[in-house]
Write a structure and sequence with these properties.
The protein contains nine helices and eight strands. With about 220 residues, it is α/β, with parallel strands linked by helices. α4 (about 60-75) packs parallel to α5 (about 90-105) and α6 packs across α7. The longest helix has 15 residues, at about 165-180. The chain binds adenosine-5'-diphosphate (2 copies) and zinc ion (ZN). Zinc ion binds near residues 135 and 152.
Length: about 220
């Protein structure tokens, strides 16, 4: 099963993708995590995208499409995946469709996580993530079960993203509104978009996603 989690920064895509990895054996493909890994290892690509990411703009479609295509190619045959943070523009959405068709793959579900923009600055200001596995936590809404230990992998190292500061978050939300939200009608028109209430508590959102996955997906929409 292959799916996309779509929603603004802070909607809970990463949080739910990790849950789906555990519950369903899917692999999370987070383009944000991939870019941060490039930066951390100081690659040419990492250096190239640094300033763009820090300002809340989008990295070019060409770079992103190549990055995700290479990643999908490396998956074991039949391994289902969750796209988190991709596609983010109409061109990426179209390139993804073409790429998957060429590989003989398809998307079963596109899940929109609907949230009030007013909640997002707070969600991101309180976000911290495990440096080892990327699991994301929140100072108030989602603390690790054992203080300072990652629930998922047991690591004790956490980071806060510099682009989660409110000034940059505002730029990222503007980018989302202008470039990413317009792809929702594209998927809606294809009849494959499902919407869940991303404002509900994390467990409730997870349950709502499960109930979407239990209903027929794209294959039966013709
Ligand atoms: P969030 O999960 O908070 O929405 P991400 O971690 O997905 O944020 O992305 C961080 C940054 O990486 C973005 O602000 C953007 O600069 C870049 N980025 C990630 N994915 C893409 C993409 N598909 N297209 C263009 N830029 C991207
Ligand atoms: P995204 O990947 O969409 O940018 P994250 O999954 O990283 O978002 O979540 C952003 C922040 O909000 C994190 O600190 C996370 O712990 C918290 N969070 C995620 N889902 C919820 C929720 N349903 N209610 C409250 N806080 C949440
Ligand atoms: Zn971890």
């Amino acid at each position: 099963m292959n799916l996309i989690l779509l929603g603004p920064p802070g909607a809970g895509k990463g949080t739910q993708a990790k849950r789906l990895e555990e519950r369903r054996g899917l692999v999370q493909l987070s383009t944000g995590d991939m870019l941060r890994a490039e930066r951390a290892s100081g690659t040419a690509l990492g250096k190239k995208v640094q300033a763009i990411m820090d300002s809340g703009q989008l990295v070019s479609d060409e770079i992103m499409v190549d990055l995700i295509a290479a990643r999908i190619d490396r998956l074991p045959k039949g391994q289902g995946f969750i796209l988190d943070g991709f596609p983010r523009t109409q061109r990426q959405a179209e390139a993804l469709d073409a790429m998957l068709a060429k590989k003989g793959l398809r998307l079963d579900y596109i899940i929109e996580m609907k949230v009030d923009e007013s909640a997002l600055v707070n969600r991101l200001a309180g976000r911290f993530s495990c440096t080892n596995c990327g699991a994301s936590y929140h100072d108030v809404h989602h603390r690790p079960k054992h203080e300072d230990v990652c629930d998922v992998c047991g690591s004790r190292d956490f980071v806060r993203r510099p682009d989660d500061r409110p000034e940059t978050v505002k730029a990222r939300l503007k980018t989302y509104r202008e470039l990413t939200a317009p792809i929702l009608p594209y998927y809606r028109a294809k009849g494959v978009l499902r919407t869940v209430d991303g404002m509900a508590p994390i467990d409730r959102v997870a349950a709502e996603i499960e109930s979407v996955l239990e209903r027929p997906g794209a294959a039966s929409n013709g």
